[in-house]
Amino acid sequence: MARGRLLVGLIFLALTSVIQADAQSFPERGYFRSLISQPAVQSSIPGPEGLRDYMVDGKLRLTLGDAIRLTLMNNTDVRINELQVESAKFSVERAYSPFDPVATSSFNAARSNSPSFTQLAGASTLSSLNQQTQFGYSQTFETGTSYQIGLSTTKSSTNSIFNFFNPSIFSGLSLSFAQPLLRNRGLFPNRAPIIIARRNLEESQATFEASVNDSIQQVVAQYWATVQARENLVVQRKALDLSEATYKQQKRSLELGAIPPLDIYRSESDVASRRVAVIQSEYNLKQAEDLLRHAIGADLDNYFRALDLDLTEKPEPSGDLVSLDEATALQRALARRPEFKALRETLANDETSIRLAHNSLLPDLRLNGFYTSNGLGGNQLDISKAPPTLVSQGGFTDALGQIFGFGFPTYGFTLTLNLPIKNRAARADLGNALVSRRRGLYLERQLRQAVTLEVVNVVHQLEEAKLSMAAAGIARDLAQKTLEAEQRKYELGTETIFFVLDAQNSLAQAELSYLQAEIGYNLAVTAVDHATGELLARYQVQIAHTYH
Question: What is the pTM of this model?
Fold first, then answer.
Protein backbone atom coordinates (compact mmCIF):
# COMPACT_ATOMS: atom_id res chain seq x y z
CA MET A 1 0.00 0.00 0.00
CA ALA A 2 2.80 2.40 0.87
CA ARG A 3 4.51 1.63 -2.40
CA GLY A 4 1.30 2.34 -4.30
CA ARG A 5 0.87 5.69 -2.57
CA LEU A 6 4.47 6.57 -3.45
CA LEU A 7 3.85 5.74 -7.10
CA VAL A 8 0.66 7.82 -7.20
CA GLY A 9 2.53 10.70 -5.56
CA LEU A 10 5.29 10.66 -8.19
CA ILE A 11 2.76 10.57 -11.03
CA PHE A 12 0.81 13.45 -9.46
CA LEU A 13 4.01 15.47 -9.11
CA ALA A 14 4.87 14.97 -12.75
CA LEU A 15 1.35 15.89 -13.92
CA THR A 16 1.37 19.01 -11.72
CA SER A 17 4.64 20.15 -13.30
CA VAL A 18 3.18 19.64 -16.76
CA ILE A 19 0.02 21.62 -15.91
CA GLN A 20 2.01 24.48 -14.37
CA ALA A 21 4.30 24.65 -17.39
CA ASP A 22 1.24 24.57 -19.64
CA ALA A 23 -0.35 27.49 -17.80
CA GLN A 24 2.85 29.56 -17.94
CA SER A 25 3.48 28.96 -21.61
CA PHE A 26 -0.09 29.36 -22.86
CA PRO A 27 -2.11 31.67 -20.62
CA GLU A 28 -5.06 31.86 -23.00
CA ARG A 29 -5.61 28.19 -23.86
CA GLY A 30 -4.18 24.84 -22.93
CA TYR A 31 -1.18 23.31 -24.62
CA PHE A 32 -2.93 20.14 -25.72
CA ARG A 33 -5.92 22.06 -27.01
CA SER A 34 -3.55 24.24 -29.01
CA LEU A 35 -2.07 21.11 -30.58
CA ILE A 36 -5.36 19.70 -31.85
CA SER A 37 -6.82 23.07 -32.94
CA GLN A 38 -5.74 24.68 -36.17
CA PRO A 39 -4.39 28.23 -35.86
CA ALA A 40 -6.34 30.95 -37.59
CA VAL A 41 -4.53 31.89 -40.79
CA GLN A 42 -5.29 35.45 -41.89
CA SER A 43 -5.04 35.47 -45.67
CA SER A 44 -6.34 39.02 -46.04
CA ILE A 45 -6.36 42.21 -44.05
CA PRO A 46 -9.49 44.19 -43.17
CA GLY A 47 -10.50 47.31 -45.03
CA PRO A 48 -10.81 50.80 -43.58
CA GLU A 49 -12.83 51.05 -40.39
CA GLY A 50 -14.91 53.80 -38.84
CA LEU A 51 -15.26 56.00 -41.93
CA ARG A 52 -19.01 55.51 -42.16
CA ASP A 53 -19.44 57.03 -38.70
CA TYR A 54 -18.29 60.41 -40.04
CA MET A 55 -20.53 60.60 -43.10
CA VAL A 56 -22.79 63.68 -42.98
CA ASP A 57 -24.78 64.85 -46.01
CA GLY A 58 -22.67 62.78 -48.40
CA LYS A 59 -19.37 64.13 -47.06
CA LEU A 60 -16.73 63.04 -44.58
CA ARG A 61 -17.06 65.60 -41.81
CA LEU A 62 -13.90 65.48 -39.73
CA THR A 63 -12.47 67.35 -36.82
CA LEU A 64 -8.75 67.16 -36.20
CA GLY A 65 -9.35 64.55 -33.49
CA ASP A 66 -11.45 62.48 -35.92
CA ALA A 67 -8.64 62.52 -38.48
CA ILE A 68 -6.16 61.34 -35.85
CA ARG A 69 -8.51 58.56 -34.72
CA LEU A 70 -9.00 57.30 -38.28
CA THR A 71 -5.25 57.43 -38.87
CA LEU A 72 -4.60 55.21 -35.89
CA MET A 73 -7.29 52.79 -37.09
CA ASN A 74 -6.52 52.62 -40.82
CA ASN A 75 -3.08 53.99 -41.61
CA THR A 76 -0.95 51.26 -43.16
CA ASP A 77 2.33 52.58 -41.75
CA VAL A 78 0.90 52.52 -38.22
CA ARG A 79 -0.24 48.92 -38.64
CA ILE A 80 3.11 47.80 -40.02
CA ASN A 81 4.96 49.41 -37.10
CA GLU A 82 2.58 47.73 -34.66
CA LEU A 83 3.59 44.30 -35.96
CA GLN A 84 7.07 44.81 -34.49
CA VAL A 85 5.48 44.79 -31.04
CA GLU A 86 3.62 41.56 -31.84
CA SER A 87 6.84 39.88 -32.94
CA ALA A 88 8.56 40.98 -29.74
CA LYS A 89 5.75 39.39 -27.70
CA PHE A 90 6.36 36.02 -29.30
CA SER A 91 10.09 36.43 -28.72
CA VAL A 92 9.37 36.69 -24.99
CA GLU A 93 7.42 33.45 -25.16
CA ARG A 94 10.28 31.79 -27.04
CA ALA A 95 12.72 32.88 -24.31
CA TYR A 96 10.90 30.58 -21.85
CA SER A 97 11.38 27.53 -24.09
CA PRO A 98 14.54 26.19 -22.33
CA PHE A 99 12.41 25.62 -19.22
CA ASP A 100 9.59 23.79 -20.97
CA PRO A 101 9.10 20.26 -19.56
CA VAL A 102 9.27 17.34 -21.96
CA ALA A 103 7.42 14.05 -21.56
CA THR A 104 8.48 11.13 -23.75
CA SER A 105 7.17 7.64 -24.24
CA SER A 106 7.99 4.74 -26.51
CA PHE A 107 7.04 1.14 -27.15
CA ASN A 108 8.80 -1.33 -29.34
CA ALA A 109 8.45 -5.06 -29.93
CA ALA A 110 10.80 -7.48 -31.68
CA ARG A 111 10.48 -11.20 -32.35
CA SER A 112 13.44 -13.22 -33.52
CA ASN A 113 13.91 -16.84 -34.63
CA SER A 114 17.40 -18.21 -35.16
CA PRO A 115 18.94 -21.67 -35.51
CA SER A 116 21.19 -22.77 -32.65
CA PHE A 117 24.70 -24.13 -33.07
CA THR A 118 25.29 -25.00 -29.40
CA GLN A 119 23.38 -26.70 -26.63
CA LEU A 120 23.89 -23.62 -24.46
CA ALA A 121 21.25 -21.85 -26.54
CA GLY A 122 18.60 -23.90 -24.74
CA ALA A 123 16.72 -24.90 -27.88
CA SER A 124 17.46 -26.18 -31.33
CA THR A 125 15.65 -23.21 -32.85
CA LEU A 126 15.82 -20.24 -30.50
CA SER A 127 12.69 -18.10 -30.54
CA SER A 128 12.32 -14.93 -28.46
CA LEU A 129 9.94 -12.01 -28.11
CA ASN A 130 11.06 -8.72 -26.55
CA GLN A 131 8.63 -5.91 -25.73
CA GLN A 132 9.89 -2.66 -24.19
CA THR A 133 7.93 0.31 -22.84
CA GLN A 134 9.55 3.54 -21.68
CA PHE A 135 8.25 6.74 -20.08
CA GLY A 136 10.38 9.78 -19.43
CA TYR A 137 10.02 13.29 -18.04
CA SER A 138 12.67 16.00 -18.03
CA GLN A 139 12.80 19.68 -17.16
CA THR A 140 15.29 22.46 -16.52
CA PHE A 141 14.74 25.01 -13.78
CA GLU A 142 15.67 28.67 -13.91
CA THR A 143 18.50 27.98 -11.45
CA GLY A 144 20.21 25.86 -14.11
CA THR A 145 19.30 22.58 -12.44
CA SER A 146 18.00 19.90 -14.78
CA TYR A 147 16.50 16.57 -13.84
CA GLN A 148 15.18 13.50 -15.60
CA ILE A 149 12.78 10.77 -14.47
CA GLY A 150 12.54 7.55 -16.42
CA LEU A 151 10.42 4.42 -16.03
CA SER A 152 11.08 1.44 -18.29
CA THR A 153 9.66 -2.07 -18.50
CA THR A 154 10.93 -4.89 -20.68
CA LYS A 155 9.03 -8.13 -21.15
CA SER A 156 10.99 -11.02 -22.64
CA SER A 157 9.78 -14.51 -23.48
CA THR A 158 11.78 -17.32 -25.10
CA ASN A 159 11.77 -21.07 -25.64
CA SER A 160 15.21 -21.47 -24.08
CA ILE A 161 15.20 -23.98 -21.21
CA PHE A 162 17.95 -22.10 -19.35
CA ASN A 163 15.90 -19.03 -18.38
CA PHE A 164 14.92 -18.84 -14.70
CA PHE A 165 12.01 -16.49 -15.57
CA ASN A 166 9.93 -17.05 -18.65
CA PRO A 167 8.38 -14.68 -19.51
CA SER A 168 10.50 -12.25 -17.54
CA ILE A 169 9.54 -8.64 -16.79
CA PHE A 170 12.41 -6.35 -15.96
CA SER A 171 11.56 -2.83 -14.79
CA GLY A 172 13.66 0.13 -13.80
CA LEU A 173 13.14 3.58 -12.30
CA SER A 174 15.89 6.13 -12.89
CA LEU A 175 16.38 9.58 -11.42
CA SER A 176 19.18 11.89 -12.50
CA PHE A 177 20.08 15.54 -12.16
CA ALA A 178 22.75 17.98 -13.32
CA GLN A 179 23.76 21.20 -11.60
CA PRO A 180 26.29 23.73 -12.95
CA LEU A 181 28.48 25.06 -10.14
CA LEU A 182 30.34 27.92 -11.87
CA ARG A 183 29.29 28.77 -15.41
CA ASN A 184 25.50 29.17 -15.85
CA ARG A 185 24.89 28.80 -12.12
CA GLY A 186 22.02 30.68 -10.54
CA LEU A 187 19.06 32.66 -11.81
CA PHE A 188 20.81 35.40 -13.77
CA PRO A 189 22.54 33.48 -16.59
CA ASN A 190 19.50 31.27 -17.13
CA ARG A 191 16.92 34.06 -16.98
CA ALA A 192 19.03 36.52 -18.97
CA PRO A 193 17.41 35.61 -22.34
CA ILE A 194 13.99 36.24 -20.79
CA ILE A 195 15.14 39.56 -19.36
CA ILE A 196 16.59 40.59 -22.72
CA ALA A 197 13.42 39.54 -24.56
CA ARG A 198 11.23 41.52 -22.17
CA ARG A 199 13.40 44.58 -22.56
CA ASN A 200 13.26 44.17 -26.32
CA LEU A 201 9.48 44.14 -25.97
CA GLU A 202 9.60 47.35 -23.93
CA GLU A 203 11.93 48.85 -26.52
CA SER A 204 9.61 47.89 -29.39
CA GLN A 205 6.65 49.39 -27.55
CA ALA A 206 8.56 52.63 -26.99
CA THR A 207 9.65 52.66 -30.63
CA PHE A 208 6.05 52.09 -31.71
CA GLU A 209 4.94 54.95 -29.48
CA ALA A 210 7.53 57.19 -31.13
CA SER A 211 6.27 56.16 -34.57
CA VAL A 212 2.69 56.92 -33.52
CA ASN A 213 3.93 60.30 -32.30
CA ASP A 214 5.40 60.93 -35.75
CA SER A 215 2.24 59.70 -37.52
CA ILE A 216 0.03 62.00 -35.49
CA GLN A 217 2.27 64.98 -36.26
CA GLN A 218 2.14 64.06 -39.94
CA VAL A 219 -1.66 63.79 -40.10
CA VAL A 220 -2.02 67.05 -38.17
CA ALA A 221 0.23 68.74 -40.72
CA GLN A 222 -1.77 67.24 -43.59
CA TYR A 223 -5.06 68.30 -41.98
CA TRP A 224 -3.93 71.90 -41.61
CA ALA A 225 -2.41 71.84 -45.10
CA THR A 226 -5.84 70.89 -46.44
CA VAL A 227 -7.50 73.62 -44.38
CA GLN A 228 -4.94 76.11 -45.68
CA ALA A 229 -5.52 75.02 -49.28
CA ARG A 230 -9.27 75.35 -48.79
CA GLU A 231 -9.04 78.80 -47.22
CA ASN A 232 -6.50 79.84 -49.84
CA LEU A 233 -9.05 78.92 -52.51
CA VAL A 234 -11.66 81.03 -50.69
CA VAL A 235 -9.31 84.02 -50.66
CA GLN A 236 -8.45 83.58 -54.35
CA ARG A 237 -12.10 83.32 -55.32
CA LYS A 238 -12.89 86.39 -53.28
CA ALA A 239 -10.07 88.26 -55.01
CA LEU A 240 -11.38 87.04 -58.39
CA ASP A 241 -14.89 88.24 -57.57
CA LEU A 242 -13.51 91.62 -56.54
CA SER A 243 -11.39 91.82 -59.70
CA GLU A 244 -14.34 90.85 -61.91
CA ALA A 245 -16.52 93.49 -60.25
CA THR A 246 -13.87 96.12 -60.97
CA TYR A 247 -13.59 94.88 -64.56
CA LYS A 248 -17.37 95.16 -65.05
CA GLN A 249 -17.24 98.69 -63.69
CA GLN A 250 -14.37 99.55 -66.06
CA LYS A 251 -16.20 97.98 -68.98
CA ARG A 252 -19.31 100.03 -68.24
CA SER A 253 -17.20 103.19 -68.03
CA LEU A 254 -15.62 102.30 -71.39
CA GLU A 255 -19.06 101.85 -72.95
CA LEU A 256 -20.10 105.28 -71.64
CA GLY A 257 -16.84 106.80 -72.96
CA ALA A 258 -15.60 107.80 -69.52
CA ILE A 259 -12.24 106.07 -70.00
CA PRO A 260 -10.04 105.46 -73.04
CA PRO A 261 -9.92 101.94 -74.58
CA LEU A 262 -6.33 101.35 -73.48
CA ASP A 263 -7.25 101.57 -69.79
CA ILE A 264 -9.37 98.38 -69.91
CA TYR A 265 -6.45 96.04 -70.54
CA ARG A 266 -5.03 96.29 -67.05
CA SER A 267 -8.34 95.24 -65.53
CA GLU A 268 -8.70 92.34 -68.01
CA SER A 269 -5.17 91.17 -67.27
CA ASP A 270 -5.86 91.21 -63.55
CA VAL A 271 -9.00 89.09 -64.01
CA ALA A 272 -7.08 86.54 -66.11
CA SER A 273 -4.32 86.32 -63.51
CA ARG A 274 -6.86 85.79 -60.75
CA ARG A 275 -8.51 82.97 -62.71
CA VAL A 276 -5.15 81.25 -63.04
CA ALA A 277 -4.60 81.58 -59.28
CA VAL A 278 -8.05 80.09 -58.60
CA ILE A 279 -7.38 77.12 -60.89
CA GLN A 280 -4.03 76.47 -59.21
CA SER A 281 -5.65 76.74 -55.77
CA GLU A 282 -8.36 74.26 -56.75
CA TYR A 283 -5.84 71.63 -57.76
CA ASN A 284 -3.66 72.33 -54.74
CA LEU A 285 -6.72 71.60 -52.62
CA LYS A 286 -7.34 68.34 -54.49
CA GLN A 287 -3.75 67.22 -53.85
CA ALA A 288 -3.95 68.13 -50.16
CA GLU A 289 -7.24 66.23 -49.78
CA ASP A 290 -5.75 63.16 -51.49
CA LEU A 291 -2.84 63.17 -49.04
CA LEU A 292 -5.25 63.42 -46.11
CA ARG A 293 -7.38 60.59 -47.52
CA HIS A 294 -4.24 58.49 -47.76
CA ALA A 295 -3.38 59.21 -44.12
CA ILE A 296 -6.81 58.25 -42.75
CA GLY A 297 -7.22 55.22 -45.06
CA ALA A 298 -10.11 56.66 -47.08
CA ASP A 299 -8.23 55.86 -50.30
CA LEU A 300 -8.51 52.13 -49.55
CA ASP A 301 -12.20 52.13 -50.55
CA ASN A 302 -13.46 53.58 -53.82
CA TYR A 303 -16.70 54.74 -52.22
CA PHE A 304 -15.05 56.78 -49.48
CA ARG A 305 -12.33 58.01 -51.81
CA ALA A 306 -14.98 59.72 -53.94
CA LEU A 307 -16.53 61.60 -50.99
CA ASP A 308 -15.69 65.24 -50.39
CA LEU A 309 -14.00 66.23 -47.16
CA ASP A 310 -15.67 68.64 -44.77
CA LEU A 311 -13.01 69.77 -42.28
CA THR A 312 -14.61 71.59 -39.36
CA GLU A 313 -11.51 72.96 -37.62
CA LYS A 314 -10.94 76.67 -38.02
CA PRO A 315 -7.42 78.05 -38.41
CA GLU A 316 -8.07 80.81 -35.87
CA PRO A 317 -6.47 79.89 -32.51
CA SER A 318 -8.90 79.53 -29.62
CA GLY A 319 -8.06 80.69 -26.13
CA ASP A 320 -4.76 82.11 -24.99
CA LEU A 321 -1.70 81.59 -27.13
CA VAL A 322 0.78 78.96 -25.92
CA SER A 323 3.98 80.21 -24.30
CA LEU A 324 6.93 77.98 -23.40
CA ASP A 325 10.55 78.59 -22.55
CA GLU A 326 13.42 76.42 -23.75
CA ALA A 327 14.42 75.06 -20.34
CA THR A 328 10.92 73.80 -19.50
CA ALA A 329 10.43 72.32 -22.97
CA LEU A 330 13.77 70.52 -22.83
CA GLN A 331 13.02 69.12 -19.38
CA ARG A 332 9.71 67.72 -20.60
CA ALA A 333 11.31 66.24 -23.71
CA LEU A 334 14.02 64.42 -21.76
CA ALA A 335 11.42 62.99 -19.39
CA ARG A 336 8.67 62.00 -21.86
CA ARG A 337 10.14 61.25 -25.26
CA PRO A 338 9.69 57.50 -25.94
CA GLU A 339 12.98 57.40 -27.86
CA PHE A 340 14.88 57.82 -24.60
CA LYS A 341 12.98 54.92 -23.04
CA ALA A 342 13.80 52.67 -26.00
CA LEU A 343 17.47 53.61 -25.76
CA ARG A 344 17.54 52.97 -22.01
CA GLU A 345 16.20 49.46 -22.61
CA THR A 346 18.93 48.91 -25.20
CA LEU A 347 21.64 50.05 -22.78
CA ALA A 348 20.21 47.79 -20.08
CA ASN A 349 20.40 44.84 -22.48
CA ASP A 350 24.01 45.75 -23.25
CA GLU A 351 24.81 45.55 -19.53
CA THR A 352 23.10 42.16 -19.36
CA SER A 353 25.08 40.94 -22.37
CA ILE A 354 28.32 42.04 -20.70
CA ARG A 355 27.46 40.05 -17.57
CA LEU A 356 26.59 37.04 -19.72
CA ALA A 357 29.91 37.32 -21.54
CA HIS A 358 31.76 37.35 -18.21
CA ASN A 359 29.79 34.26 -17.18
CA SER A 360 30.86 32.47 -20.37
CA LEU A 361 34.51 33.04 -19.42
CA LEU A 362 34.11 31.01 -16.20
CA PRO A 363 35.21 27.35 -16.06
CA ASP A 364 32.45 24.83 -16.58
CA LEU A 365 32.13 22.83 -13.33
CA ARG A 366 29.16 20.48 -13.16
CA LEU A 367 27.75 18.03 -10.65
CA ASN A 368 25.76 15.08 -12.01
CA GLY A 369 23.96 12.52 -9.89
CA PHE A 370 21.85 9.47 -10.61
CA TYR A 371 19.84 6.83 -8.79
CA THR A 372 18.34 3.71 -10.33
CA SER A 373 16.10 1.09 -8.80
CA ASN A 374 15.52 -2.24 -10.55
CA GLY A 375 12.87 -4.92 -10.32
CA LEU A 376 12.24 -8.36 -11.81
CA GLY A 377 8.99 -10.22 -12.24
CA GLY A 378 7.48 -13.01 -14.28
CA ASN A 379 6.97 -16.77 -14.13
CA GLN A 380 9.78 -18.39 -12.16
CA LEU A 381 10.88 -21.83 -13.39
CA ASP A 382 12.91 -24.65 -11.88
CA ILE A 383 15.25 -25.51 -14.73
CA SER A 384 16.89 -28.39 -12.78
CA LYS A 385 13.95 -30.55 -13.70
CA ALA A 386 13.14 -31.74 -17.17
CA PRO A 387 11.02 -30.27 -18.41
CA PRO A 388 11.37 -27.05 -16.30
CA THR A 389 8.69 -26.80 -13.62
CA LEU A 390 6.72 -23.64 -12.76
CA VAL A 391 7.63 -22.51 -9.26
CA SER A 392 5.60 -19.29 -8.99
CA GLN A 393 3.68 -16.92 -11.21
CA GLY A 394 4.40 -13.20 -11.33
CA GLY A 395 3.93 -10.15 -13.48
CA PHE A 396 4.21 -6.41 -13.82
CA THR A 397 3.11 -5.66 -10.25
CA ASP A 398 5.94 -7.75 -8.86
CA ALA A 399 8.46 -5.85 -10.95
CA LEU A 400 7.02 -2.51 -9.79
CA GLY A 401 7.02 -3.67 -6.19
CA GLN A 402 10.72 -4.40 -6.34
CA ILE A 403 11.37 -1.01 -7.92
CA PHE A 404 9.72 0.92 -5.11
CA GLY A 405 11.16 -1.42 -2.54
CA PHE A 406 14.56 -0.04 -3.54
CA GLY A 407 16.20 -3.39 -2.90
CA PHE A 408 18.35 -3.31 -6.01
CA PRO A 409 19.65 0.25 -6.28
CA THR A 410 22.41 1.75 -8.38
CA TYR A 411 23.56 5.28 -7.56
CA GLY A 412 26.49 7.59 -7.94
CA PHE A 413 27.62 11.06 -8.91
CA THR A 414 30.07 12.71 -11.30
CA LEU A 415 31.97 15.95 -10.94
CA THR A 416 33.32 17.31 -14.23
CA LEU A 417 35.48 20.35 -14.88
CA ASN A 418 35.87 21.86 -18.35
CA LEU A 419 38.68 24.41 -18.25
CA PRO A 420 39.38 25.88 -21.70
CA ILE A 421 42.95 27.01 -22.19
CA LYS A 422 41.71 29.72 -24.55
CA ASN A 423 38.14 30.87 -24.97
CA ARG A 424 38.35 33.28 -27.87
CA ALA A 425 34.65 33.05 -28.67
CA ALA A 426 33.68 34.19 -25.17
CA ARG A 427 36.30 36.95 -25.26
CA ALA A 428 34.95 38.11 -28.62
CA ASP A 429 31.40 38.12 -27.23
CA LEU A 430 32.58 40.22 -24.30
CA GLY A 431 34.33 42.63 -26.65
CA ASN A 432 31.24 42.95 -28.84
CA ALA A 433 29.08 43.59 -25.78
CA LEU A 434 31.44 46.35 -24.61
CA VAL A 435 31.45 47.90 -28.07
CA SER A 436 27.66 47.71 -28.21
CA ARG A 437 27.37 49.48 -24.87
CA ARG A 438 29.78 52.20 -26.00
CA ARG A 439 27.79 52.62 -29.20
CA GLY A 440 24.62 52.89 -27.13
CA LEU A 441 26.16 55.64 -25.01
CA TYR A 442 27.11 57.58 -28.13
CA LEU A 443 23.61 57.06 -29.53
CA GLU A 444 22.18 58.41 -26.29
CA ARG A 445 24.35 61.49 -26.58
CA GLN A 446 23.41 61.87 -30.23
CA LEU A 447 19.72 61.58 -29.39
CA ARG A 448 20.05 64.11 -26.59
CA GLN A 449 21.72 66.57 -28.97
CA ALA A 450 19.08 66.03 -31.66
CA VAL A 451 16.19 66.44 -29.21
CA THR A 452 17.79 69.55 -27.70
CA LEU A 453 18.16 71.09 -31.15
CA GLU A 454 14.60 70.12 -32.05
CA VAL A 455 13.24 71.65 -28.84
CA VAL A 456 15.14 74.90 -29.38
CA ASN A 457 13.91 75.12 -32.98
CA VAL A 458 10.26 74.46 -32.16
CA VAL A 459 10.30 77.02 -29.32
CA HIS A 460 11.70 79.58 -31.76
CA GLN A 461 9.14 78.44 -34.33
CA LEU A 462 6.35 79.01 -31.81
CA GLU A 463 7.55 82.51 -30.93
CA GLU A 464 7.98 83.37 -34.61
CA ALA A 465 4.48 82.09 -35.39
CA LYS A 466 2.92 84.26 -32.68
CA LEU A 467 4.78 87.38 -33.79
CA SER A 468 4.06 86.66 -37.45
CA MET A 469 0.37 86.17 -36.75
CA ALA A 470 0.18 89.50 -34.90
CA ALA A 471 2.06 91.34 -37.64
CA ALA A 472 0.02 89.65 -40.42
CA GLY A 473 -3.20 90.68 -38.69
CA ILE A 474 -2.09 94.32 -38.63
CA ALA A 475 -0.98 94.09 -42.28
CA ARG A 476 -4.34 92.62 -43.31
CA ASP A 477 -6.29 95.37 -41.55
CA LEU A 478 -4.13 98.07 -43.15
CA ALA A 479 -4.48 96.45 -46.57
CA GLN A 480 -8.27 96.49 -46.19
CA LYS A 481 -8.20 100.18 -45.23
CA THR A 482 -5.84 100.95 -48.11
CA LEU A 483 -8.19 99.29 -50.60
CA GLU A 484 -11.14 101.24 -49.25
CA ALA A 485 -9.14 104.50 -49.51
CA GLU A 486 -7.97 103.78 -53.08
CA GLN A 487 -11.47 102.82 -54.10
CA ARG A 488 -12.82 106.09 -52.70
CA LYS A 489 -10.08 108.10 -54.44
CA TYR A 490 -10.87 106.35 -57.74
CA GLU A 491 -14.54 107.15 -57.37
CA LEU A 492 -13.64 110.83 -56.74
CA GLY A 493 -11.40 110.78 -59.82
CA THR A 494 -8.16 111.59 -58.01
CA GLU A 495 -6.59 108.14 -58.63
CA THR A 496 -6.43 105.78 -61.59
CA ILE A 497 -7.63 102.17 -61.62
CA PHE A 498 -4.01 101.02 -61.33
CA PHE A 499 -3.92 101.90 -57.64
CA VAL A 500 -7.23 100.15 -56.96
CA LEU A 501 -6.05 96.92 -58.60
CA ASP A 502 -2.74 97.13 -56.79
CA ALA A 503 -4.59 97.55 -53.47
CA GLN A 504 -6.75 94.53 -54.28
CA ASN A 505 -3.65 92.42 -54.91
CA SER A 506 -2.10 93.68 -51.68
CA LEU A 507 -5.23 92.76 -49.72
CA ALA A 508 -5.27 89.25 -51.21
CA GLN A 509 -1.61 88.74 -50.32
CA ALA A 510 -2.21 90.10 -46.80
CA GLU A 511 -5.12 87.69 -46.25
CA LEU A 512 -3.02 84.78 -47.51
CA SER A 513 -0.15 85.83 -45.23
CA TYR A 514 -2.47 85.99 -42.23
CA LEU A 515 -3.92 82.57 -43.09
CA GLN A 516 -0.43 81.15 -43.40
CA ALA A 517 0.51 82.68 -40.03
CA GLU A 518 -2.53 81.06 -38.36
CA ILE A 519 -1.72 77.68 -39.86
CA GLY A 520 1.92 78.17 -38.89
CA TYR A 521 0.92 78.78 -35.29
CA ASN A 522 -1.16 75.58 -35.17
CA LEU A 523 1.71 73.60 -36.68
CA ALA A 524 4.15 75.19 -34.24
CA VAL A 525 2.00 74.09 -31.28
CA THR A 526 1.92 70.55 -32.70
CA ALA A 527 5.69 70.61 -33.21
CA VAL A 528 6.18 71.67 -29.58
CA ASP A 529 3.96 68.81 -28.37
CA HIS A 530 5.84 66.37 -30.60
CA ALA A 531 9.24 67.55 -29.41
CA THR A 532 8.26 67.37 -25.73
CA GLY A 533 6.54 63.98 -26.06
CA GLU A 534 3.10 65.36 -25.16
CA LEU A 535 1.36 64.94 -28.50
CA LEU A 536 -0.35 61.66 -27.59
CA ALA A 537 -1.61 63.08 -24.30
CA ARG A 538 -2.97 66.21 -26.00
CA TYR A 539 -5.20 64.10 -28.25
CA GLN A 540 -5.90 61.48 -25.53
CA VAL A 541 -4.17 58.65 -27.34
CA GLN A 542 -3.17 55.69 -25.18
CA ILE A 543 -1.20 52.68 -26.37
CA ALA A 544 -2.37 49.51 -24.63
CA HIS A 545 0.24 46.98 -23.51
CA THR A 546 -1.56 43.66 -23.28
CA TYR A 547 1.45 41.39 -22.65
CA HIS A 548 2.63 40.75 -19.10
Answer: 0.81
